[in-house]
Amino acid sequence: MKLTRALVVLDLETTGIWIEKDRIIEIGMIKVTPDGKQEIYATKVNPCMPIPAVVRELTGISDADVKGAPSFTSIAGKVLAFLEGADLGGFNVERFDLPLLAREFSDAGIKFEYANRTVYDAQKVYHLHERRDLSAAFAFYCRQDLKDAHSATADAQATLSILEEQLIRYAAPREDIEGLKDFDYKQTSEYFDNDRKFRWWNGDLYMTFGKYAKKEPLKVIAKKDPQYLEWVLDKDFSDEVKNMIQGVLSGQYPKQEG
To answer: 152-170 vs 134-142: helix axis angle to the nearest 10?
Structure first.
């Protein structure tokens, strides 16, 4: 790899995917210089909050693992120095790692700007060059080119062929289509409602709109400003949301499933 300036490839493990609130539990960075030398900075980070079960299962990092680790605030200066003067790289860093890292720096009272740096996002390059559409799936599973792509019947036939091949590959020894139901396609929702006006974080529900957006959980708002929640009841929200708000006002707080 020929470089004209240093490149830092980084990855973050975090308590979740809410950029405005979730926190780093592990950071790994590799700096490559134009002369080919490599330097690594890696550390666990104490997020000063419980690590959700789904994150523990995904990363293998538990509360005990980070109990004696430094907080991000205490290492922010070292992290910034490691990044100094380098271009940046990673996988999905433009949409997640860098914005969350910038917010962590901001919480530590440090301004981190990366807009003037070149960012090499491997995920973006991957998605641009390796398609994940129906034609690509048909070629992968059925080893054929999809003719008449975007013809409704041809696309439906191709999808049927893909499902048949997936059944053979993934659902054995079952031979019926029900075998594909064994896969859990559902992801744990970060949101309470389909309109994404209320979001879960650390076991509490937060608004994503209005003056309390992403600031305080509903149970706190219900105590300090119940009139604001009563205002929600008069607006165009779903019955599900209004029933939830009425419950909060009466002291019945929703619990996140899973």
So the answer is: 50
pLDDT at res. 243: 94
CATH number, domain containing residue 94: 3.30.420.10
186-238 tens-digit pLDDT: 445 688 988 889 999 988 999 999 999 989 999 999 999 999 999 989 888 89
Number of domains within the chain: 3
Beta-bridge partner residues of 24: 14
188 assigned to some structural domain: no
The amino acid occupying position 169 is R
Which H or E element spans position 14? strand 7-14
Beta carbons of 93 and 119 less than 8 angstroms apart: yes
Report DSSP state, residue 175: -
Q: 257 lies in a domain? A: no
Residue ending a domain, choose from 182, 206, 222? 182
How many whole angstroms separate alpha carbon 42 and alpha carbon 78? 11
- Kindly give, in sequence order, each residue whose CB lies less than 8 Å from that of residue 86, ignoring residues fewer than 6 positions away: 5, 6, 7, 8, 31, 117
Which range of residues forms the domain containing residue 12? 7-126
Q: What is the helix (H) or strand (E) element at residue 129, kind and residue range?
A: helix 122-129
Q: What is the pTM of this model?
A: 0.75
Of 15, 6, 17, 2, which is closest to residue 41 (Cα–Cα)? 6
